[in-house]
Amino acid sequence: MTVLLSVEDAAVSYGAVEAVRGVALQVASGSVATIIGANGAGKTSLLSALGGLLPMRGRVIYDGHDITRLGTADRVAAGLALVTESRDLFGTMTVEDNLRLGAYTRTRAEAAQGIEEVFGRFPKLKERRTQLAGTLSGGERQMLATGRALMSRPSVLMLDEPSLGLAPLIVRDIFHIITELRNDGIGVLLVEQNARAALQTADHAYVMELGRFVMQGAAAEMMHDQRLVETYLGIS
Ligand code: ATP
């Protein structure tokens, strides 16, 4: 495993409000790193900044290159993709056209191949290839947003709350897909409020509180950390 994404001393502010302060993290190829924490901890702000959607201070090193000053499109072209919490699909376009939009960094032939790869990974999307994205279920929308991000062939995929609003069976499918992506060598940075599922899936975990990381370690060990379990997993 190689470290692909390395973040140093990251900070994000909204005016006088510091949403993220002094955060450092790493994501290696073929591994899942998760950031867990309560509402408002700063997880979405951090991921959005790493995706180039918000200004930030600090440094972002991707595959040995400093990409701190790159915009979103250049980050995607470099191999760093983000699926936002809102999933941002084009509701009046078909499933297939939404996927095609994710391939703007690639040739037409590569896009066609990419679509078949995504359909291989998400057979449900293939069944619904001509359906309008706005009519998909929540789980299908998450799959489409993830599939669209995969169209750019990222080596690091950042997912913001992929289980948000989904039924337990669908959540299980989503986490299964995350494990498959990891097994295919992709580095995944996963922001989740579903701490239990995130820790079960991840290799490494960071716990965020009030804009800072207050704890980090092997996800499997964190499952047995009494304070963490009581605070985030709702078991006493
Ligand atoms: P959630 O899971 O609820 O999305 P989060 O951990 O992702 O929470 P953020 O959404 O990053 O947290 O919010 C971190 C802090 O930044 C919060 O105090 C929030 O109120 C503040 N914040 C977020 N977006 C803005 C904004 N556009 N303007 C001002 N403050 C903001």
H/E series: EEEHEEHEHHHHEHEHEEHH
Total strand segments: 10
Please give the count of helices: 10
Biggest sheet, strands in spatial order?
6-7-8-3-9-10
What percentage of amino acids are in beta strands? 25-35%
Judged by helices, strands and strand pairing, the structural class is: alpha/beta
Structural shape: globular
The major sheet is characterized as: 6 strands, mixed
Low-confidence stretches: none
Mean pLDDT: 92
Rg from alpha-carbon coordinates: 17 Å
Bound molecules: adenosine-5'-triphosphate
* Spatial separation of the terminal alpha carbons: 36 Å
Helicity, as a percent range: 25-40%
Characterise this structure.
With 236 residues, the chain is α/β, with parallel strands linked by helices. The chain is built from ten helices and ten strands.
Sum up the structure in keywords:
single chain, 236 residues, alpha/beta, 6-stranded mixed sheet, 4-stranded antiparallel sheet, binds adenosine-5'-triphosphate, ATP binding, ATP-binding, amino-acid transport, BCAA_Transport_ATP-bd_LivF, ATP-binding cassette domain-containing protein
Which secondary structure elements does this structure contain, and how are they paired or packed?
Elements: E1 3-14, E2 17-28, E3 32-36, H1 43-50, E4 57-62, E5 65-66, H2 72-78, E6 80-83, H3 95-101, H4 108-121, H5 123-127, H6 138-150, E7 156-160, H7 168-183, E8 187-192, H8 195-201, E9 204-209, E10 212-218, H9 219-222, H10 226-232
Parallel strand pairs: 3-8, 3-9, 6-7, 7-8
Antiparallel strand pairs: 1-2, 1-4, 4-5, 9-10
Helix pairs in contact: 3-6
The structure holds adenosine-5'-triphosphate.
